[in-house]
Amino acid sequence: MKIVYNINFSLNLDSRTSQDVLGLLKMTAKEFHQTVIMITHNDHIAQLADRVIRIEDGHLSEEGEFR
């Protein structure tokens, strides 16, 4: 299994470029059987994930799937 880490990459990108990069990241992860671990403060980006785990007040709280 390959793991790709992505920590808040979108801070300096416009919204369209962010969406393009996320789409490419998701597509390549599926094609090459990779796991993507992304850390973000952006709920719109988090909604693109298959699974979301939040850290709240120093504790992990699993949100589950957005779909």
Task: Give an overview in words.
A two-stranded parallel sheet has the order 1-2. It has a two-stranded antiparallel ribbon with strand order 3-4. With 67 residues, the chain is of the alpha+beta class. It has two helices and four strands; from the N terminus they run E-H-E-H-E-E. Helix 1 links the parallel strand 1 and strand 2 (34-39). It has helices at 15-31, 43-46, and strands at residues 2-7, 34-39, 52-56, 59-64.
Give the topology.
Elements: E1 2-7, H1 15-31, E2 34-39, H2 43-46, E3 52-56, E4 59-64
Parallel strand pairs: 1-2
Antiparallel strand pairs: 3-4
Throw out a few tags for this protein:
67 residues, alpha+beta, two-stranded parallel sheet, two-stranded antiparallel ribbon, 2 helices, 4 strands, globular
Q: What's the quick description here?
A:
With about 70 residues, this protein is α+β, with helices and mostly antiparallel strands. The chain has helices spanning about 15-30, 45, and strands at about 1-5, 35-40, 50-55, 60-65.
Q: Could you tell me how far the N terminus lies from the C terminus, measured between alpha carbons in angstroms?
A: 24 Å
Number of helices: 2
Q: What is the helix/strand order?
A: EHEHEE
- Mean of all residue-level pLDDT scores: 79
